[in-house]
Amino acid sequence: MVRPNTRNYTSEVSRISTKHLKTLVKSPLQYIINSGNKKLTAQVKDYAITYMLPNGRTLQGRIDDSAVSYGSRYWFICPHCQTRRGTLYFTNQQIACRKCFNLHYPSQSENQMDRLRRKVIIKRDRLFKSTDSEYNDLFNNAYCFPKPKGMSHKRYEIERNKLANIEDAYWSVARVYVDNICGKVMS
């Protein structure tokens, strides 16, 4: 029997991030954020922010800024723990940071095989920059894809070999996993 999931993940909750905050600071108008299936309305005046949650409830909050080499970076102040945050999460009832909602990133619950699979997919996305599904098919190895246009042959060889090493590690772990389920497979 599979143990029930006891963690709540950030991917399950709607969010507002600093990319929204840049727009909010520059615009005196209300700004509507659609995240997931929820809609949040926010407005910034000076360093105060007003949130209208999906259920119509209005909450007051604050923002902060820090000086960086290219100007200013804006931060949300979590209404519960009063700490600077780049992202706040919201439900119909509340808005808070990841720690206050006790949310976890999905990668925190991955096993070794899941981590390696994600690493392969990310590496392929960065190397080939293609949305074609064949690049996400793990049964295709790194050597069956053409060199991306504009990349030097030497650089491509280096990156493809790195990808091939990650794929080999993935298949080593996957083979052990399959052997545990089905019995030893001849190699």
3D architecture notes:
It is a single chain. With 187 residues, this protein is α+β, with helices and mostly antiparallel strands. The protein folds into 2 domains: 11-103, no CATH class; 107-182. Strands 3-4-5-6-7-8 form a 6-stranded antiparallel sheet, covered by helices on one side. It has a 3-stranded antiparallel sheet with strand order 2-9-10. The protein has a two-stranded parallel ribbon with strand order 1-11. The mean pLDDT is 86. It is extended. β6 and β7 (71-77) form a beta hairpin. The longest helix is centred in the C-terminal third of the chain and has 30 residues, at 153-182. It starts with 7 loop residues before the first strand and ends in a 5-residue tail after the last helix. It has helices spanning 18-26, 112-128, 153-182, and strands at residues 8-9, 14-17, 31-35, 38-45, 48-52, 58-68, 71-77, 84-85, 87-90, 95-96, 103-104.
Strand order of the largest sheet: 3-4-5-6-7-8
Strand content range: 25-35%
Number of strands: 11
Question: Whole-number radius of gyration?
Answer: 22 Å
Beginning-to-end CA distance, first to last residue = 31 Å
Domain count, please report it.
2
Low-confidence stretches: none
Task: Write a compact overview of the structure shown.
This protein has three helices and eleven strands, in the order ββαβββββββββαα. It has 187 residues and is an alpha+beta fold. The chain has a six-stranded antiparallel β-sheet with strand order 3-4-5-6-7-8, covered by helices on one side. A three-stranded antiparallel β-sheet has the order 2-9-10. A two-stranded parallel ribbon has the order 1-11.
